[in-house]
Specification:
By secondary structure, this protein is mainly alpha-helical. It has 20 helices and no strands.
Amino acid sequence: MSASFSHAPTPGHRRILTASLIGTSVEFYDFYIYATAAALVFGPLFFPAESASAQTMLSYASFGLAFFARPLGAAVFGHFGDRLGRKSTLVGSLMLMGGATVAIAFLPTYAQVGWIAPFLLCVLRFAQGFGLGGEWGGASLLAVENAPPGYENRYGMFPPLGAPIGFIAANGFFLLLGTMLDDQQFRDWGWRVPFLASAALVGLGLWVRLKLTETPAFREAAAHHTLPKVPIAELFRSHLRPTIAGTVGVIACFALFYLTTAFALSYGTTVLGHGRQAFLGVEIGAILFLALGVVVSCIWADQTGAQAMLRLGFVGCIVTGLLMGPMLGAASLWVVFAWLAFGLFVMGFAYGPLGGWLPSLFEPGVRYTGVSIAFNLGGIFGGALAPIAATALAARGGLALVGVYLIVAGVVSLGGLMLLRR
């Protein structure tokens, strides 16, 4: 990674970048093991057996619940992040999400306790989303507010890199379990192991974050400026345009990710009939292209500007939607892999530069709130609704109709960039 920097980061900067990377990797691991379990086993385990498609839809609904919790978490953690500082707020968000993830490992199923099972699952899923609502924005500020001038996007790429790392850890865990357990063992108890293992990862994240100091930008704002008493009120009063622009600007990256991962996994292993192990392996290979896209786009963003890279990513989202029907629906997994790799690579351009771009839209006194609100509100439209809408669209008109969802997401995010043009 050092090749992307013209000078080596100081030991203090390396510690900060490591903390931002580890923290988001743990958070995304927690989030993705739920997405994978929702696609594979949560439907029949936690919801009434009216029909297989109904169970899948209800499972995706519980998955989407976290996205509606995330803006609430963004408002709460953003308030304390802008009032009290970035460090303590990031510790709190990690503890909440990690605790909820571990608790899911001990839940009873619908067959054991009836409606209490999906209720408890949804409560813990809501807590997961509430915690993540304060995570991504704070981790981005931790990196960007410590960056030397001209290095904001290269430093800002470390929190986004937590996404592919967390995804590989989560799906790799499920892939490993699949080689060790048969389907019945996996359904009976194997799916619980990744949730239980989160306890060790959360402990690692907390150990790293507790060693950090506050960012220079927040110390400067606290020492020389009057911080807003209610940051979210100040945000909507004085920063409404960038908040709207940031919100619609993140829709494409969320839609790309959850349609190429959660939806593609469920659709590929049920409707298309691909083996679960084979498809998980294909997705793990394709996710490496997301990491590549993040690194390439963030290096270029410090030279050409983040908006130029985001624009390429949003156009790539449109192209991915056009290719979805013929490529994801192909009989050959190699063709499926090519589509996934392309979609995730261009997602790197729609996602990586957000780490530097979103903080640049807001002043320090409302920055934690602004980044978190914009990122997580956009997640509702691009992430929460995407697998549910895609399942309904696929049943009505096939994968080509699902591709229209990606096309619309790309066009809407391009409109977000237009809002910032004077």
